[in-house]
Amino acid sequence: MNLDTINFNELCLETTHKVPIKTNTIVWSAYDGSLSATEYTLLATGVMGPERNALGNHGATILRAEWQSDAADVAQAIYFMNVYVYPNYRDPKSVAPMLWFPPLPPNAFHDADPAIRHTMTCLALGYRICALLAADSVNPSGLDDLRHVRTKVLYHRNLAIQALSSSIKDERKRSRDSTLHSILMFLVVEIRQCASDWRHHFDGMTQLINLRGGIQSFVTSQASLKSQRHLVHYCLFAAFGNTTCIASDMARADFSPDQIDAIKEIYGNGLLSTCPCPPKLFLALVRINVLRSQATRSTVPMEGLQIQALEMVSYIEMTTEADWAAENRASGEGLLLLASIYQSAIMVYCIAALQSVHVLGHSALLLATKEKHHKRLMGLLEHCLKSASLRGGMMKCTLWPLIIAGTGLRAGTGDDRLFLERQLTETSASLGSQLPLLGKTVLRSVWSSPHPHWDDWFDKPYLFLG
Domain for residue 120, yes or no? Predict the structure, then answer.
């Protein structure tokens, strides 16, 4: 592979925007990160607005978007994440013992790559947009704030792209962990903000991982724990992103059968993300996607794939969720419920998607199995999302299962559809992401589609992860 051909602007980030913004930009090197608590608060808070915080801090005010410089933007981003976002992510800890991000110190990104600083600012701005859209009260300045915030997103996105492109072009930087981390964080923000070209960014990251020897190299080498944790999200994006797309257009991640052990090692116990799927079920999902992909190639014997598919259905059915919850010393019912939700969601996906590529047939037994698990999935979601003690955490962990449940409602009742639409709307506010709202649009398209097969429902690749 010719390294010079990997140009991040051309390969992954063509959709940049030129934003005419007048800004009193501060050169970052002039800010030494040594702000006192008072100075940091004054720099970060700026002008306050009275609208309600839709992210969960009821009664609190939300930062207005009148920012004057790059340094102030980053300071406000840190402040916003700590004051409005971090408290909202305490809820999932009551559901599962996951490792969520800690509060950020004022100088958290002083030594970080410029791409990280601008990407984190975009992330905070994305939350800010959702808070404005979900605000209950009518604020005369709300529309102006929204326009300003969206403009700032484009501005910082463009700066992040420039920084990433510079790192990719530099032979010394393109293979560093910091570059990989920067790209992954940018990809996270693009997905959360419903960027239509997220797959291009993912493919670019795949090429950089392959330059370092593939995901296997991170297991066999002395790669840092931080690098491996970032690869957890890469594996999640590949696995779940390859479910809501057509089988012939899957992401080009090297998830071949001989990479399963490496994926298993990187994924660990499945608790390092907001998609806490038990490892056995996650690896089953990876294998289902491999079967879908192989079914599109005329060189792969269909009989062998059909045998593997039936074995996969049996494997998912027999997977015991209690083992995972016990191994991770979970207290309460949260983790066990999540395991059951993902088991049924993966079963529904497995049967529907493999029937679409003619790897599974349409026997009465398979139909009954799919209907049983869809009914179970709907019941579990309703129980969790109506529970006062579980609801806050579950909304951040069940976006993909909500979408899978929705695909099974083509002949469903209006009440079930209304429940899912309402949950997706509320999940959007809880996550600070417009991705669940995109999910509503996709599900409405599925419900109105005249086509009965999985591969007919997705006009482009989607990724529904919180």
Answer: yes
